[in-house]
Amino acid sequence: xxxxxxxxxxxxxxxLNKLPWVARCSQLANSxxxxxxxxxxxxxxxxxxNNGAHKDMDLTDFYRSAEAIRVWIPYFxxxxxxxxxxxxxxxxxxxxxxxxxxxxxxxxATSGVNTHKGTIFSLGLLATAIGRLVSNQKAVTxxxxxxxxxxxxxxxxxxxxxxxxxxxxxxxxxxxxxGLSGARGEAESGFQSVLTVSLPVYQxxxxxxxxxxxxxxxxxxxxxxxxxxxNVASRGGPEGLRWLQQTAQQFLTEGGVMxxxxxxxxxxxxxxxxxRNLSPGGSADLLIVTWxxxxxxxSHSKNTH
Length: 305
Known about the structure:
Elements: H1 7-16, H2 20-38, H3 59-70, H4 73-82, H5 91-109, H6 117-135, H7 142-153, H8 156-161, H9 170-178, H10 182-188, H11 192-207, H12 212-226, H13 230-253, H14 262-276, H15 281-294
Catalytic activity: 3'-dephospho-CoA + ATP = 2'-(5''-triphospho-alpha-D-ribosyl)-3'-dephospho-CoA + adenine
Protein name: Probable 2-(5''-triphosphoribosyl)-3'-dephosphocoenzyme-A synthase
GO molecular function: ATP binding; glycosyltransferase activity; triphosphoribosyl-dephospho-CoA synthase activity
């Protein structure tokens, strides 16, 4: 099916899948996707209440997609393990066919609906990073994972978004028009928006005993307030993105999820997003990364999983 998956690789993956830590990583990836889509109410996004600003997908599409992607996580880990001696900058080329094969499984599961393309990119990088760290006998922590992803993604924005080919992709167009680097920029930065914004917000609220759903909603709104979300910009241009960021920031300024009527305000925000056909899918992808990373220790000084 693709170059890096011969019968030996496949057999190795079957063996890897029997290891508790590999199975756990697959389950964490699946749980991260389910926690995001089940989170309700979310402005403009598919959740348990409605389909947000989407007319082509619903909750069950996301469930099928998450299960399809879960199956591929061991293959990303195996790729990371088998290439652990190569420089990080050499990894992306061989990783791409694996990502495309995982995408094909997603599309098959959803009958052609793009539910998690950005998530395949980010979770694929993180699973590969886990494989490399384990094989190099390094601690798997939030910081080490993000550092490894940054190493693998170095130069991606310049190579893939700055080039001037005749048929610009949506990502290239948004980068050249508005300077938005999207998922590639996040990966190349080592998920700095997650490390500096959503993860501290989420972990702080959890530490205070706040309900995990509320904590995750606060993390999402914190991302929406700062993220240059290419999903939003492609639907509503810079004006739509600016409105969404300002509305999210206003919600946070008024107290965020600590407001007694925060659910009512989020439902109104959702209504406005649907009216404007805006969906912060990029922030949703980063929320999945946030929850996933939160399951690992922050640094080497703490007990590793």
